[in-house]
Structure formats: C-alpha cells, structure tokens
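FIELD: query
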Amino acid sequence: MQNMATHAPAKLRRVRRAGLQAPSTALEIVRSFLAAPAAENDPQMVSSTPLDLGSFARHLYDERRIRDGALGAELFADPMWDLMLELYASAADGEKVSVSRACAASRAPSSSALRYIKEMTAKGLVVRDECRSDARRVYVRLSDKARNAMTDLLNRMMRDRLMFGLAGR
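FIELD: result
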C-alpha cells in the first residue's frame, strides 16, 4: 500500500495534466506536515519549512478579535501575545510598526501597553528603532531572539492544528 508521501505527487501530476491549479498554500502545508517528524530532529529543515507564518500570525491575531467580539475582550486579555503576533506578522509583510500602532495592537490602555513594550525591551524581546526622518517617531520590532522563538512556536502551532484537523475527521 502506498503511503501519502508517494501517492500525493501522482495526484498532483493528474491535477496539472487536467489543467487545474492546485493551491500552493495547501501544498506547502501538506509538504510541511509530511516532513514534520524529520524536521523535529533537523534544525535546518525546521527553518526551511515553506509555511507563511506571517499570515498564520495575522490569522491568530484576527481569530482573537473574533473571540473578543463573541465573548468579551475583558475575559481573555493577553496584550503581550497580541503585540508579538502583530510585530511578527508586520515584519513578514515588510511593515514597520510605530509605538502607537503597537499600543493599539496590544488592545491595552496606552499606559499599560507602553509598560509592556518597556518590559519586553528589557527582556530582549523587542527592539526600539528611532525614525531617521522624524525624531518624535519610534518603531518597535521583535528582536532576532524573539523572532526565532516565534517562528519555532508558530511552526509547532500550525503543525499541531493541521495534525488535529486531519486526525479529527
């Protein structure tokens, strides 16, 4: 009996011959899922997993907003996590995040959000960058350490969701 890894390329060839376009994101997810057991033991493979983790981070952020709307934001506040998701997704999109935008993304009062940014900066998770053209503006971004940790975490979370989705049917 053929396993999924050897059977999937034959199906893909039939799809291509028929002139149909297979969604690339779905293919990337399936490929990473099939490579997951080997990737856990090979750090090089984990970093080369072709998943759109920036979009996944944005999805997680948006999913939290949907939950807040349905059940109330005051029940599930986690401003530092919201901020890290926003910074990760924005970096993946090539966008700079101003401190005011970061405060808004955290969904916390500005004074609290500024305190969180200061704490995260002190712990080496966030880096503050001065704007070259406007001395009043400051941007924030994830440090390399935080970005790498988020990449590992988002990879695991995406794999777990995919495995649960496939196993739950």
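FIELD: remark
Residues 144-167 form the longest helix (24 residues).
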